[in-house]
Records
---
Amino acid sequence: MRKAFLGMLVFLAVGLIWLVSCTTTTKTTGAAVEVRTPAAAEAAGKPKLAEEAAPAAEEVARAEEVPPEKVLFEGEIKPLSPVECARCHYPIYKILKDQGGKHRQVCTNCHEVYHRYNPLRKNWKAIMPKCNKCHGLPHGKAAKECLSCHQEPHSPRRIELASVSGKCALCHKDESETLKTHESAHQDVGCEGCHSDRHGRVPECFECHDEGHIPGQTVKECLSCHNPHMPKDIKSFEGLEVDNRVCGSCHDTEFERLASTTTKHGKQACVFCHNRHGFKPKCEGCHGKPHSAALHKKFPQCLRCHLDPHSLRRPKVSEVQIQGK
Ligand code: HEC
Ligand code: HEC
Ligand code: HEC
Ligand code: HEC
Ligand code: HEC
Ligand code: HEC
Ligand code: HEC
Ligand code: HEC
Ligand code: HEC
Ligand code: HEC
Ligand code: HEC
Ligand code: HEC
């Protein structure tokens, strides 16, 4: 009884499949014929030309001859999109998606051939994309083995520090020269002493220095005066806003004098007059010669009377040794 029932089901299923396939094939061929007939072209408002009509008629004949299973091999084949490749290569797709940067492209841009690997032919290298096809040799001839540093081509910016260790000068000539040619304690620290952990990491000064010259100084400020690759060559102060206490942390005498004077110099920043480190300006640079020509001729040194630029203290009579009188 059950056997008979199952048999019925199978018969019905086969029948149904046959029916469906029949209707679809008719539809497909039918559609193909419809567009191609001269009648249809005419209906669409196209002029009926003899040349056009003839091939169309031929095609109709051909299409009618084509057995239904051949139609399976007709139609445009589109390359797989990354999402389609991802159905099988999800991990690679995910790396590209998250860290691919500018390599987030159609896979077949790079993989012009794929699924051709055959261990017997040992052809892995031959079928894999070549970086220099698109990039040439961006770091010069000394860095030819791209994958030795760019170990994951689907995440091209990720570089293990170990793979560039000791090779900094290859690509960073300026920084390497600077450090090498300017004597400082940072020479002993070395590139990787500061740029540690990963390639391109920039350290904060406070990783090694407890504090700046005054509390609350920021790294940005440190860098406005110090180039880390030549820390002893202080940059120009031109255009910088520097708290007088910074200079005062080393030049306490000048700082105290300037801080306590009631003259107009007391309102100036150290860097207003000293626009680079160690530079000592001339009074005349700002003031010219404000007194009578006779006085300046007699006393060419302003500080003879004004004593100190930071206090502009008025001299006691005993201090002004008026010579030649
Ligand atoms: C910018 C170029 C580029 C793009 C885009 C790219 N690949 Fe690759 N892919 C490579 C290179 C180069 C290799 C060779 C690595 C090697 O030789 O070890 C590779 C290797 C592979 C491998 C074999 C090695 C492995 O890690 O399993 C697969 C699979 C692969 N890619 C799949 C994909 C898929 C899928 C996509 C798109 C979602 C894609 N690739 C996009 C350049 C690319
Ligand atoms: C239906 C699953 C499937 C799809 C879709 C697929 N692959 Fe693969 N692919 C595989 C399998 C399986 C391997 C072999 C095992 C492996 O390496 O993971 C392979 C290997 C590869 C390899 C390395 C070996 C070789 O012969 O090239 C590359 C490169 C590759 N696929 C790229 C692609 C790209 C690009 C796409 C999309 C255009 C894609 N695959 C789509 C299943 C697939
Ligand atoms: C089919 C061409 C092609 C291949 C092969 C290729 N790349 Fe690229 N790559 C590109 C393009 C295009 C860019 C984007 C360039 C741009 O916008 O400046 C790029 C960008 C990069 C970047 C910068 C990425 C970013 O996000 O800024 C690196 C690094 C890189 N490629 C390394 C490699 C390496 C290493 C290989 C071999 C493993 C390789 N590329 C293979 C086309 C390619
Ligand atoms: C010695 C290690 C090393 C080798 C070998 C190497 N690279 Fe690089 N490459 C790097 C590093 C490090 C970067 C900088 C990555 C970053 O931090 O953005 C880089 C960056 C790039 C960039 C981006 C350029 C830019 O200015 O942003 C491209 C493109 C690139 N490499 C391609 C290649 C190609 C192609 C090869 C092989 C011919 C190659 N690299 C070999 C270490 C290397
Ligand atoms: C093969 C070439 C190459 C080598 C070797 C290399 N770098 Fe780079 N590096 C680059 C490129 C290219 C960039 C620029 C990436 C960019 O524009 O973002 C870079 C960027 C940097 C940056 C700046 C990051 C930023 O945020 O501005 C530092 C710091 C750096 N590298 C330090 C080093 C040190 C230290 C070494 C040696 C341990 C080294 N690099 C080795 C190519 C290289
Ligand atoms: C004492 C720590 C220290 C040492 C040693 C050091 N650096 Fe730097 N480096 C820095 C700091 C801090 C910066 C950030 C400078 C800035 O932003 O003005 C930097 C910036 C860089 C940059 C990026 C430059 C730019 O214009 O963006 C590169 C490249 C670099 N260093 C390479 C090197 C190399 C190569 C060496 C070894 C020869 C080295 N550094 C030694 C601390 C150091
Ligand atoms: C990885 C550790 C490290 C980092 C980061 C570092 N330094 Fe240094 N620096 C040292 C060492 C070690 C010395 C020598 C001992 C000392 O003076 O503390 C030194 C000395 C100096 C000196 C005196 C140089 C000399 O030859 O006497 C200056 C200036 C200096 N550092 C400024 C900076 C600035 C500014 C930064 C941040 C941009 C910085 N350092 C980041 C380790 C570091
Ligand atoms: C306004 C400029 C300026 C700023 C900002 C500045 N420095 Fe300096 N720094 C100097 C000068 C000038 C010297 C003395 C140079 C000399 O001895 O010729 C110096 C010396 C140093 C020294 C050598 C040791 C010492 O005390 O004599 C270290 C270390 C140092 N600075 C670290 C830093 C750090 C860290 C920062 C940020 C927190 C910083 N500096 C910010 C100007 C500055
Ligand atoms: C970390 C200590 C330190 C800091 C901070 C510092 N200096 Fe100096 N300064 C020195 C040293 C050391 C000298 C060298 C003394 C010498 O050559 O006799 C010097 C020299 C000078 C000289 C030349 C002195 C002479 O007799 O020729 C002037 C001017 C000067 N500094 C101004 C400044 C100013 C302005 C600032 C703040 C922007 C500043 N300094 C910050 C340590 C410092
Ligand atoms: C109004 C301008 C002016 C200001 C503001 C000023 N200075 Fe001076 N400073 C001078 C002049 C001018 C000299 C040179 C004096 C001379 O020729 O002997 C000088 C000399 C110095 C010297 C060298 C002292 C010596 O014995 O030769 C130091 C150090 C100094 N200044 C530090 C400072 C500091 C620190 C500040 C801020 C607290 C500061 N100055 C603010 C004008 C100024
Ligand atoms: C970088 C420019 C600069 C330099 C260098 C400079 N001064 Fe001045 N000085 C000023 C300024 C600005 C004032 C205030 C002017 C005002 O507010 O009218 C001033 C004011 C004065 C005053 C009047 C003070 C008061 O309270 O009325 C005297 C005196 C003076 N300077 C003397 C000197 C002498 C002496 C020197 C050299 C040792 C000198 N200055 C160097 C910029 C400078
Ligand atoms: C013989 C002593 C003497 C000499 C030398 C001298 N001064 Fe004076 N200067 C004075 C006296 C006194 C005053 C008025 C009192 C005061 O303001 O301190 C004065 C005032 C000034 C003032 C303020 C003027 C005003 O109008 O507010 C400036 C600026 C000044 N001197 C700059 C200079 C300069 C620059 C030199 C050198 C080129 C110089 N002095 C040389 C004695 C002198």
Note: The two ends are 146 Å apart (CA to CA).
---
Amino acid sequence: MAFPECVDVELAAGAEMRRRTTVAVMAAVMKAFEDFSHCARFGKDYASCDGGAKVGLPEWSNSMNSPHPKLPMKALPPFLACSALTALALAAAPALHAQTTDGEATASQPPSQQPKPPERPELPGFAAIPGGEFTMGDTLESDRRAPWHKVNVSAFHMQQKEVSKAQWDEVRDWGRRHGYPDLPDGGGKAAKHPAQAVSWHDVVKWCNAKSEKEELTPCYYTDAAQTAVYQTGKTDLDSTMVNWTANGYRLPTEAEWEKAARGGLDDEHCARFPWGDTISHPQANFCNDGKEKYQTGTTGNHPAYQTGEAPFTSPVGSFAANKYGLYDMAGNVCEWCWDRYGRYQWEVSTTQTDPHGPVEGRFRVMRGGSWYNHAYFCGVAYRYDFGDPSGSSYNVGFRLARSSAP
Ligand SMILES: [Ca+2]
């Protein structure tokens, strides 16, 4: 298995080893300091940016910079990136530091010099994501919730931008007149800003409504026989209730989302973000607490969008796209995925083609970070693990996927 330059390290013993070894070293360090990690996470290292305080969020969300401030919390996930632990890990694997430094040059490329997103005339507003194998998971900091592994994803289409409030309203209004009575108003700072404050159940039903509105085959059903289209209520869907080959709209799976977010960079460079290794406000709408070396430039909420009342979202597509032509895959609003949160199934199955996630679990995965979140939460591998499918928040929205064009 070949990995590029970012994963080669040379340890003190002089033996050149792959990042796999570095990960093992880091994991040992992390395990030894697990208790410290727990304390650090809730203490100094993740004090909030201005945003949390100014919008009057609960104290716990302010100290944690919760990615989902209005949702109920479950057991707190392990967190391995506090600055002290990162320092220890870097001491054990100095090449990681060099890799991050090298990455800054890549990320500093101005938008005007970046590749122009490919045009996809067959399905306007969507990017064609090529099928194939990619490395999924945290290759940089060995987050135990996101161990890296190979996944094969079939070609699919991904909406280039987050679903806007205008799009939400159009389909919601149609849906209420056509068998979807409980689609909510949802939130949105303006018509071109992302829809937010919509639950997982809301967005799945909305996907079906949009499919029916456009006379496509819906993807979600309330029965395994796939005879009853999911239109109302809160059904705890499993993957047997999904027509994965339908031409209708659906949420991306977690694997699809991450492959799309990486934009093909996994083949040449283990990037932390959809464009490279560092993040700054010219690249994304996020909250820069300035405490990680991969956050550069102005701190706090994005200065251009911290106006009026929260949320401080930006119009969808306000920043440069990644190499697949996708916008806001880091920041603006977190994005619902199909999967239940759980351990990656590669640990229990050797078949890793188009995984649909675990069969059990209360929570659904969210990805990509938001205007409210610090950089770490905006990484391509970071997994939000406490998305109550009935809950909603003003920093959580979604984007659409399609298995095939008409
Ligand atoms: Ca986003």
Note: Residues 1-114 have pLDDT under 50 and may be disordered.
